From TrEMBL:
Endpoints of the signal sequence: none
Protein name (record): Fe2OG dioxygenase domain-containing protein
One Pfam family of this chain: 2OG-FeII_Oxy_3
UniProt KW keywords: Dioxygenase, Iron, Metal-binding, Oxidoreductase, Vitamin C
Cofactor needs: L-ascorbate; Fe(2+)
Cofactor remark: Binds 1 Fe(2+) ion per subunit.
UniProt GO MF annotations: 2-oxoglutarate-dependent dioxygenase activity; iron ion binding; L-ascorbic acid binding
Occurrences of domain Fe2OG dioxygenase (ranges): 78-178
Residue positions binding Fe cation: H96, D98, H159
Alphabetized Gene3D superfamilies for the sequence: q2cbj1_9rhob like domain, Rabenosyn, Rab binding domain
Keyword match Kinase: no
Residue numbers binding 2-oxoglutarate: R169
Record's keyword annotation contains Oxidoreductase: yes
Length: 226
């Protein structure tokens, strides 16, 4: 399941991010690529210990925890600290799958990457190319969102970022271990959750809403691990 989360960060926060990232010290992104991905990856990133990455990453984490759609879709158990990347001058990241298990300095536990996320920080008209192409059962999905918007996609998917042939594409990206490992189960829970929320608005007080809410929680109890 691909989930588009609009306006994760507001315009003022976004403007601050863009100002700070325009003056950031970008390093070669190949430093953190796996041994296969290293051939396909041509971009820049902030170093993991860059204080700017930590400061902006914390703001992203804060925004995620206050976003109902993100919480309902991801059912997050652990979120890795956001990283920041920049593609320009033909920069690209060829088809790859993200590592299944990751760790981050300072985090006590390792994180299984059930979900991958990209928060777009450049607007689509600022660059040519730079589409996030995600392979799924229905074919390739091409994602290029307005600045401030986030896409969530299954960590299991093969994906790429196409070459940026004009301008620059700046983004934050990170991984999430979900309470619910399987994408299909998360998709069902999200569908049920959204339907219950809509019913609660349309027919407030209807006793069947409590029964459906019970079904939601009892499925979550069956399918979650912590
Ligand atoms: O920049 C993106 O949208 C995704 C980056 C990516 O796939 C990765 O770093 O593994
Ligand atoms: Fe990736």
């Amino acid at each position: 399941m691909l989930v588009h989360i609009p306006d994760l960060i507001d315009a003022a926060t976004l403007a601050g991010f863009r100002r700070d990232l325009a003056a950031a010290s970008w390093v070669d992104g190949r430093g953190t690529a796996g041994h296969l991905a290293v051939h396909a990856k041509l971009n820049q990133q902030l170093a993991a210990d860059d204080p700017l990455a930590k400061r902006l990453g914390d703001i992203v984490l804060q925004a995620l925890s206050g976003n109902r759609l993100f919480m309902a879709a991801a059912l997050p158990l652990r979120v890795l600290p956001p990283k920041f990347n920049r593609y320009a001058d033909g920069g690209t990241y060829g088809f790859h799958v993200d590592g299944a298990v990751m760790n981050a300095p300072g985090l006590p536990q390792r994180v299984r990457t059930d979900l991958s996320a990209t928060l777009f920080l450049s607007d689509p008209d600022e660059y040519e190319g730079g589409e996030l192409v995600i392979q799924d059962v229905f074919g390739d999905r091409r994602v290029k969102l307005p600045a401030g918007h986030l896409v969530l996609y299954p960590g299991t998917s093969v994906h790429q970022v196409t070459p940026v042939t004009r301008g620059a594409r700046v983004a934050a990206f990170f991984w999430i271990q979900s309470l619910v490992r399987e994408d299909a189960q998360r998709a069902l829970l999200l569908e049920l959750d959204l339907a219950i929320q809509k019913l609660a608005l349309d027919v407030p007080g209807n006793p069947e809403i409590a029964r459906l809410t019970g079904v939601y929680h009892n499925l979550l109890r069956r399918w979650s691990d912590t």
